[in-house]
Design brief:
The structure is a single chain. The protein is of the alpha+beta class and 152 residues long. The chain has two domains: 31 residues, no CATH class; 118 residues, Immunoglobulin-like (Sandwich), CATH 2.60.40.790. 19% of the residues lie in helices and 32% in strands. It has three helices and seven strands, in the order H-H-E-E-E-E-E-E-E-H. The strands form two sheets. Strands 1-2-7-6 form a four-stranded antiparallel beta sheet, with no helix packed on it. A three-stranded antiparallel beta sheet has the order 3-4-5, with no helix packed on it. Strand 1 and strand 2 form a beta hairpin. The protein is elongated and about 80 Å long. The N and C termini lie far apart (56 Å). Belongs to the small heat shock protein (HSP20) family.
């Protein structure tokens, strides 16, 4: 796989740091694939991340939500007294980061049957939602009625 050095672009741009970070992360996406995961869209503003972490207990996992990033870390205490003949279930430590879009927040997490599920919701603040602007003091609902008459 080819790697690209994006640092020359950083010198000539302002305010695009997050965009370049995302491009760099996409480039490194194939490097680590443990634990396997799914990202599912449940509805227009609801998502769910599912991680397959068999062999871990909820006490072995830490979930940290920061601005635009959710990090899941897992570490299993080394149990030296166990003597495996074959060890196919991986319990190695991991750290998986997911970048979140603006206004997407972690709402809850659950652990069942070896799957960790993290529920996400996009909640756009009222101040950021589109709104109608009245012209010359006309009520905003009047503007909508005038538009529907013009379309007819």
């Amino acid at each position: 796989m080819r790697t690209y050095d994006l640092s020359p672009l950083w010198r000539s741009t302002i305010g695009f740091d997050r965009l370049f970070d995302l491009a760099e992360m996409a480039q490194r996406a194939g490097e680590d694939n443990y634990p396997p995961y799914n990202i599912e869209r449940l509805s227009e503003d609801r998502y769910q991340i599912s991680l397959a972490i068999a062999g871990f207990a909820p006490s072995d996992i830490a979930i940290t939500a920061e601005q635009n990033v959710v990090t899941i870390e897992g570490s299993k205490p080394d149990n030296a007294e166990r003597n495996f003949i074959h060890r196919g279930i991986s319990t190695r430590s991991f750290k998986r980061r997911f970048d979140l879009a603006d206004y997407v927040q972690v709402k809850s997490a659950s652990f069942e049957n070896g799957l960790l599920r993290i529920d996400l919701v996009r909640e756009i603040p009222e101040a950021m939602k589109p709104r109608r602007i009245a012209i010359n003091g006309a009520p905003a609902d009047n503007v909508q009625k005038l538009e529907s008459k013009a379309a007819a």
